[in-house]
Every structure is written in C-alpha cells, then in structure tokens.
Design a protein that fits this description.
Distance between the termini: 46 Å
Order of helices and strands: EHHHHHHHHHEHEHHHHHHHEH
Shape: globular
Largest sheet: 2 strands, parallel
Helix content: over 70%
Structural class: mainly alpha
Radius of gyration: 22 Å
Strand order of the largest sheet: 1-2
Number of helices: 18
Number of domains: 2
Length: 446
C-alpha cells in the first residue's frame, strides 16, 4: 500500500517561523521511522557503500581498465557530471508531482546503467571516450538526483525539527557507507584491472539492491493541487498562464550555498594538495584528515544538529560560515609554522572545519525544506542540489588555481568569500526563501 502525505493549500512562507519548535530528541526507533523506516535506511546504507566502492576510483577505472589518457578521462568525467546537473530541473518537477520513493529508486537504477556501461565499454576503442562519458553522466545524474529525492522523501514523512534530525541521520548513514565502501575498494585494488572490474560489478549489484529496497517502502506525496495548476497552465482555456519566478532571497541562498560547499572539498582536495605538494608530507596525513572528517560526520552529525536546533536555521547557517572561515584562517596560520608543527596543526584545524561542515549540513537543506511551499518543494530542493553539484564540480579547479598562487591567495580568498556568504545569509529579509508563483492576471491587477 502506498503511503501518501496529506496535501494542504499553499500559504505564505517566511524564511522560518518566528518561534522555533522545541528540540526533538528521538530514540533510535523513532529516528529510523523519521528517516523512512528500516528498509529505507538499509537502502541508503547499501547505496552509499556502492558509491564508496567506485566513486573514488572512477578515474583510475578509465585510465587502467579502458586505457584512456588521464586528461581525457578527467574531461569526460567533468562533462558527464555537468550534463547530469542539467537534468535536475526535470527531477524537481517529478518530485512536485508527488514522486518520493520511486524517485529515490530511479536515481539508484540510473547508476546501475552507468556501471553496466563501464563494464561494457571496450578498452582502447574509438568509442571508449563517449561510452565512458555517458557512464559518468548516468553516475553523476543518479548521485545528484538521489540527494534531492531523499530530502523530499524525508520532508514528506517528517516535519519541523524532526525533519532536520532525520536529514542529519541520513547523512550520517551515507557517510558511514561511503567510508566502508572506500575501505573495501582499497582492499580490492591489489587485484589490478580485474579488481577494478569487480568493483564496478559489485557497485552495480549494490545499486540494484538499494533501488529495490527504496521502492518497496512505497512513499508518495499527494500533489494534486500542483498537478492541477500545471495542467491548467498548459491548457488552452481562459485560465491565466502561471509565471514562476524565484525571489531574490532564494537566489541569495543558492549563491551563498555555492560558496559554502567549498568546505566539502577541503578534506578531499585542498588539504591533500597543501600537505603533499606544499609541505611535502606523507600522503598518509591526507588519509588521516579524510578519515577524521568521515568519522566526525558519522558520529556527530545528529548530535550537532539537535544541539543547534535551539537557533533558527538561518542563524545556524550563518554561524557555520563563521566557523568555516575561522578554520580557513587556521589553515593559513598552520602552514606558516615550522614543518614539524605545521602538519599536526593542519590536522587539528581540520576538526574545526568539520564542525563548520556539520553545522552547515544540518541547517542548509533543512532551511530549504522548511521554507519552500509544499507544491514547489521538489523544484526548490532540485535547485539547491544544482547549486551544490555546481560548486562540487568547480571547486577542485578553483582551489588548485588559488593554491598555485600561494597559501595566502588560497585561504584568504576562501575566508573572504565564506564570510560574505555568511553575512548575506544572516541579513534579515522581508522576502521568503522560496519559489513563488504569480499568475499574469494577478500581476496585472497589482
């Protein structure tokens, strides 16, 4: 039987309610139900293990198995991810028509297609680059879509601070799965080409299993009012044609998010770059930073989100920018220390950066979900995920270019941009953080 969320007529929305609800401190069972139930939690875990198996080694697969040049493989991956981002508006519209568990399952199945294409791609053939790029497209699209679809599903079955905590719990599960998958993949790399192909096959199996589990929970939102409006706007009758716009406050939030997301690339891109190429430290230190980051996210994402619920989501988001900015200044100060102290100092400051990441992750998606009207929730989450994916796509290139100009250029630029984003988010506004719909008839009257 399909579980549907009741539909309610849209009402005016503000960035957040004036009074925050009491902190929700759930037990394990209540938290599992808020996320989507036991089967759905298992689906999230299995899916993230699959992503951890292949995602860190996709470039190696293109180079070692398909015999592509490193630059060619990298460009093909970038092209695939960017093309996948372009499909996010369609995902948002599907979510606004009520899709929830079906959308999550579809995003997982799409990645099955990507991994099958990797397995079928011929090595050293003229079409290898095209097949690899298309595989990266499906993998990138699924990776982006599952985040928006998961947030929409949780928002359908949970509300207010319960929803915030459930989103945080889902992120903890996904990071635990990613870490476990990466560990399993690392152990499999000793098998060379055969091991990489085995990783791709195992990834396809995990995506298929997780899709079946996600679809089996049968969660759907009642979106009849929005569907009726869309049908009317496409018709030839006398009903006014809908004109959708995004208010400046939402544009501001999306722009600020592009800057905030750079913090997610710090453990994976910036710190390995600084530790290995600038401080000439062992790559083991870069791995230590990544492990610490992953462990802290798994262990503390839910407690930090619960603790921060005493503040408004907008305040928490602004505070996260301040914490992240201070960590950037800490990294700048650390690299100026003698080498024997610089490396441990960077590892210590990375904990502060992760704290800022935890506050950001616990408040950003929750703010969008709380502010968006029900009939436009899918499109709001899709736009937010689009800004996240765009930032993740461009951040390695920008971080690398800034690092080439020296530590000051890298860390001061990131600090200034993040503080500016935090100030923009914290600034009070009378306009809602939402997509609003006006009819031409209403616009003419006003």
């Amino acid at each position: 039987m399909t579980r549907s969320a009741p539909s309610s007529p849209p009402a005016p929305f503000s960035p957040e309610p004036a009074a925050s609800s009491p902190t929700w401190k759930p037990g394990v069972r209540a938290l599992v139900r808020a996320v989507g139930g036991p089967r759905y939690v298992v689906a999230l875990a299995v899916d993230s293990i699959g992503a951890g198996l292949l995602r860190p080694f996709l470039l190696l697969y293109g180079i070692d198995v398909l015999h592509l040049a490193a630059l060619t493989a990298g460009l093909a991956m970038t092209a695939g991810v960017v093309a996948g981002l372009g499909c996010m508006p369609l995902v948002g519209r599907w979510l606004d028509r009520g899709a929830r568990s079906a959308a999550v399952a579809a995003s997982m199945l799409v990645r099955v297609i990507g991994t099958v294409l990797l397995l079928a791609a011929p090595a050293g053939h003229a079409a290898t680059v095209l097949v690899f790029a298309v595989a990266a497209l499906f993998l990138g699209l699924g990776g982006q879509a599952v985040s928006a679809a998961h947030a929409a599903l949780v928002s359908t079955i949970s509300a207010d601070r319960q929803r915030d905590t459930a989103l945080a719990a889902g992120r903890s599960v996904r990071n635990a799965g990613l870490g476990l998958g990466a560990l399993l993949a690392t152990a499999s790399l000793t098998g060379g080409t055969v091991g990489l192909r085995a990783l791709a096959a195992g990834t396809a199996v995990t995506y298929l299993l997780s899709a079946a589990l996600a679809y089996s929970v049968h969660i759907r939102a009642c979106a009849a009012p929005a569907a009726a409006r869309d049908a009317t706007s496409r018709g030839t009758g006398s009903a006014p044609r809908a004109r959708r716009t995004v208010v400046p406050a939402m544009r501001l939030l999306l722009a600020a998010n592009v800057v905030y997301v750079f913090c997610l690339s710090i453990p994976e891109v910036a710190l390995p770059l600084v530790l290995v190429t600038q401080l000439h430290a062992s790559p083991v230190w870069a791995a230590v930073v990544f492990v610490i980051n992953t462990g802290l996210v798994v262990a503390f994402q839910v407690p930090v989100t619960i603790w921060m619920s005493r503040f408004s989501r907008r305040t928490a988001l602004a505070l996260s920018g301040v914490v992240i900015s201070f960590s950037y200044l800490g990294f700048l100060g650390s690299v100026e220390l003698p080498r024997q102290w610089a490396v441990p100092a960077i590892v210590g400051v990375s904990v502060l950066c992760t704290l800022g990441e935890l506050i950001y992750a616990g408040s950003s998606t929750a703010l969008v979900a709380a502010a968006a009207p029900e009939h436009n929730l899918g499109r709001a989450l899709a736009r937010f995920q689009l800004s996240t994916g765009f930032s993740l796509a461009i951040s390695p290139a920008i971080i690398t270019a800034l690092a080439a100009r020296g530590p000051a250029a890298l860390w001061i630029s990131l600090t200034a941009a993040t503080l500016l984003a935090a100030v923009a988010v914290a600034r009070p506004t009378s306009q809602p953080w939402e997509e609003v719909t006006h009819s031409d008839e209403y616009a003419a009257k006003t």
